[in-house]
Amino acid sequence: MTSQNTGTAQLTTAMVLSGTLGVFVMESGAPPFDVVFFRVLFGALALGAYVVARGWLRDHGFTPRTLALAVLGGVFIVFNWVLLFQAYENTSISVATAVYHTQPFYVVLLGALLFRERLTAAGVGWIALAFAGLVLVSGVTPGDFTSGGGAYLTGIGQALLAALLYGLSTLVTKRISGVRPHLVALVQVLVGIPLLLPFADFGAMSGTGWRWGWLAGLGLIHTGLMYVLMYAAYAKLPTSKIAVLAFVYPAVAMVMDWAVYGHHIGLVQALGVPLIVTASLKVTRARPARTPAAVPAPRTAARAPQAASRPATPEACEA
Fold this sequence. Notes:
Blueprint: H1 3-19, H2 21-28, H3 32-54, H4 64-90, H5 93-100, H6 103-115, H7 121-138, H8 142-146, H9 150-173, H10 181-196, H11 212-234, H12 239-245, H13 248-261, H14 267-286
């Protein structure tokens, strides 16, 4: 099997695992803050064990500046997860996941606003198309705003805000160089432990019982194993292929939502999905390929000198 075929298999597996995340969240039965707290706790154990086993703590490459950037990115990532998991409860896994995939456009807009990155007319057009898709997918009508809209409108807003925080984490982490992505991810989940501790309701966990398995899975599978597979794949694949394979995640999430909970988006909502997917792919693939010395993207950083650097595509939208 060629290196690219191996990378394709690794990233596809990672995206399939990511697509099952919503089921693990819902089946745990825990409040979103508790879910994320135990995700980062178990995830830190998994990633920490992997990093130690590979001997990557030596010559880690962090400087005070890059460590601070990793910590800041971790703050954005952790609260991004909280909001996304709340959106699952208020809408559905399918709708929240589709809305969440507006993240690439936040990266473009924030880059233009904060760092004066060039925003082309084509980019504006694709963002407008994605917004049209978002309106369709959300299923929100003008009457929802006048009648209050309830929890559903709140869930749409939470998914959008989660995407915004993910975009901020992308922009921050892109500025980290010389550090293995696994180490950046480890710092970010470690940040979540003290950050979420004041919000965790351990009393609500007393009757969790066998549901602890779902929480452990979120850390060990969806944070430890999934990230290892993704980062291994990123080193073998071109950015264009990463962008395409990233959409395995929402596809699997929607299938799981239908198979497990009987939820599915309506016909009009379904029309919005290809608009978001097409616009996202156009925006992602329009970006110039980075050289090996370039700084990679969300929750990743340039690999150490002995490993080839590969952008981790902020548009991958791993949950």
